[in-house]
TrEMBL record:
InterPro entries: NAD(P)-bd_dom_sf (IPR036291), SDR_fam (IPR002347). The keyword Oxidoreductase applies. It comes from the Bacteria. Belongs to the short-chain dehydrogenases/reductases (SDR) family. This is SDR family oxidoreductase. The keyword Phosphoprotein does not apply. SUPFAM superfamilies: NAD(P)-binding Rossmann-fold domains (SSF51735).
Amino acid sequence: MTTTSSYALVTGATNGIGYELAKLLAQDHYNLVLVARSTQELEQTATELRQQYGVEVETIAQDLFQREAPFAVYEAVKAKDLQIEVLVNNAGQGQYGEFIETDINRELDIIQLNIGAYVVLTKKFLQEMVVRNQGKILQVSSIGGELPGPLQSVYHGTKAFVTSFTEAIREETKETNVTITALLPGVTDTDFFNKADMTEAKLVKEGHRADPADVAKDGYEALKAGKDKVVSGFMNKVQVAVSNIIPDSLVAANLHQQAKPSEK
């Protein structure tokens, strides 16, 4: 049960899965701390959620590509004297293309966003949750973490880290009342593929894209139930299950074909 002073922090909260998760939390009367890069988008989202759900919404504009940014987010929460009951690590980006040709600085930014920010925010808020013996964390990972991803090698690698890291710290804290849940979506209809320059890839252009609201609902229900992990979408469950049976080299070859530019 939430009280009027319960706060949930969501990164990447102004669009896509993060925005849908923020709405679900607000529906359940959580006050919100929204984190994103754009002050303008944050204010628009905050105003909308305040008006629609009558919750308090704090905003923190930080660029989580920067190494010091997640620390700054934590310090801003402390300065506002807020207690975070639910942490949602959601912000993430990818880059499309062959590894030998892609921009290494962009990739280092992606590693900082997809891994560094998750690690810092998880550590800072998990320490508090364990002391209180109460709290929930949702790590938005990806089925990409279960599968080698040619033409998205760094992104898939970061998501493998997130899932593995989540499983390890869940074991470390299993004697507490804190729950840590990993959400593994597949291809979802968000701005991710525009940012990754990946809109022409076969799996994006020709394949099914999940509704971010459906993905968020799967993740939120798993979070509330304290589940370890949820793969969102039936076909994604099938894909992950099959990939556990056939050799990684075949999985990689198959995904390579799917990730190549569409000829349609």
